[in-house]
Design brief:
By secondary structure, this protein is α/β, with parallel strands linked by helices. It is built from 12 helices and 21 strands. It folds into 2 domains: 170 residues, Lyase, Ornithine Decarboxylase, Chain A, domain 1 (Beta Barrel), CATH 2.40.37.10; 248 residues, Alanine racemase (TIM Barrel, Alpha-Beta Barrel). The structure holds pyridoxal-5'-phosphate (PLP). Pyridoxal-5'-phosphate (PLP) binds next to loops.
Length: 446
């Protein structure tokens, strides 16, 4: 428990099983009568209807996390733009948009997902390192809050496309502040060696260039230094540099009225990092570092909103006794959840049926059926004694889970389910094998 009276993570500890300790908890996946529930729905009920594996999300957790960010910026003119690349199902977007969320999108596909879910264009921010001509056409036709420009060639092309449409596109320039985010190398984006943004040392020059382009309208500055940050210091360093830059650019005559401060606040994936900074602490850093500038603030959280709002539920296929090792072979695999293979990520794995007090556990390597040694979710994990057919849940799987899935090994994309109190709905069905295969088309000579 933190000082604020809630924890960012609850491990379905048996102490929670007695009560509906929902108030102030990080998520709404708890044991009740010995069975893991998503809000008021027992997971075996969903499994019986949709089959395993599947992703399940809690509406209450999604809403709670969005509100934590919104409240953290209370008193400042602000917009929380959900970075939908973390989980981009229409139902998730609609749930958050209904609370007033904006969206941070990084492709034409994500832009269309936002528009299709009914998000007003003036709440959509377009980010990304390699925006194409056709994506620029799409967002200029449909409307956009602002484009976060990442390079000078992109700026020039955006200008040309804007002039062709006879409009001025609101832009920020993404600044690379050269700050070490102290996170996994694959998700650090704010060091000068990373491909993202424009070096802060060149900012004045690039803003001067942008100001000379008639199709663009400078509205502010953008920064995003990485994902899964577990410490506030890199944010503080980056935002301090952005504050200094704001003064300098204003002196140069630019109208800096909006700061997009990116996403990246980390979530606890295991018991050992339960003391991570909370959105409130993060909001305090923002207020301290840039609050005096009178700018409108945008933030782009993805992982923290949806990460602990989702589980991956899987069945045990076999328990295989190896030499000195037990393998728990489950029906989910790296194609469904690639984070362990790609980022060496840790996910807590819990049995859906709560082990009885005093139950002797067992140690397993938890693996999927895919033909790669990398298809290993966990090594030497202490779990309950499990059997064929038992259900297990991978926690903290809501972000960068379903969206990164593939059909490798011709395993159809797994379904997504959204729970709200005692209701649940399939929000993306599992394709049939025919549907999967019939996406292929044959050339005339075959
Ligand atoms: C990925 C990304 C985010 C979201 O990062 P999280 O760690 O999921 O909060 C926000 N903004 C940009 C530009 C991104 O690329």
């Amino acid at each position: 428990m933190s000082a604020q009276g809630f924890s960012l993570f609850d491990l379905c500890a048996s102490s929670l099983s007695k009560t509906r300790e929902f108030e102030g908890k990080m998520d709404h996946f708890i044991y009740r009568q010995g069975v893991l529930h998503a809000e008021d729905v027992p997971l075996p009920v969903i499994a019986a209807q949709v089959g395993t594996p599947f992703y399940v999300y809690s509406t209450a957790t999604l809403e709670r996390h969005f509100r934590l960010f919104d409240e953290a910026l209370d008193g400042m003119d602000h917009l929380v733009c959900y970075a939908m690349k973390a989980a981009s199902n229409q139902a998730i977007i609609k749930t958050l948009a209904a609370l007033g969320a904006g969206m941070d999108v990084v492709s034409g596909g994500e832009y269309m997902r936002a528009v299709t879910a009914g998000v007003p264009p003036e709440r959509i921010v377009f980010s990304g390192v390699g925006k194409t001509h056709s994506e620029m056409n799409m967002i200029i036709s449909g409307g956009v809050r602002q484009v976060n420009v990442e390079s000078e060639p992109e700026m020039e092309l955006l200008n040309i496309v804007a002039l062709k449409h006879g409009v001025q596109v609101p832009i920020t320039v993404r600044i690379n502040p050269d700050v070490d985010a102290k996170t996994h190398a694959k998700i650090a984006t704010g060091k000068s060696e990373n491909k993202f943004g424009i070096p802060i040392s060149r900012a004045r020059e690039v803003y001067a260039h942008a100001a000379s382009l008639k199709g663009l309208k400078i509205v502010g500055i953008d920064v995003h230094i990485g994902s899964q940050l577990t410490d506030l210091e890199p944010f503080a360093l980056a935002y301090r540099k952005i504050a200094e830059l704001t003064h300098i650019l204003r002196e140069d005559g630019h109208d800096i009225k909006r700061l997009d401060l990116g996403g990246g606040l980390g979530i606890p994936y295991s018991r050992s990092n339960e003391t991570l900074p909370l959105p409130k602490d993060y909001g305090d850093v923002i207020k301290r570092e840039v609050g005096h500038l009178g700018c409108e603030i945008e933030i782009e959280p993805g992982r923290l909103i949806v990460g602990n709002a989702g589980l991956l539920v899987s069945s045990v296929i076999y328990v295989k006794e190896g030499e000195g090792r037990n393998f728990l072979i489950v029906d989910a695999a790296m194609n469904d959840l690639i984070r362990p293979a790609m980022y060496e990520a840790h996910h807590e794995i819990v049995p859906v049926k709560e082990p009885l007090v005093g139950h002797e556990g067992r140690t397993y390597d938890v693996v999927g059926p895919v033909c790669e040694s990398g298809d290993t979710f966990a090594k030497e994990r202490d779990l309950a004694n499990l059997h064929d057919g038992d259900l297990v849940a991978f926690r903290s799987a809501g972000a960068y889970g379903a969206v990164m899935a593939s059909e490798y090994n011709s395993r159809p994309l797994i379904p997504e389910v959204l729970v709200k109190e005692d209701q649940f709905a399939v929000i993306r069905p599992r394709p049939t094998l025919d549907e999967m295969i019939n996406r292929d088309t044959l050339p005339i000579w075959l």
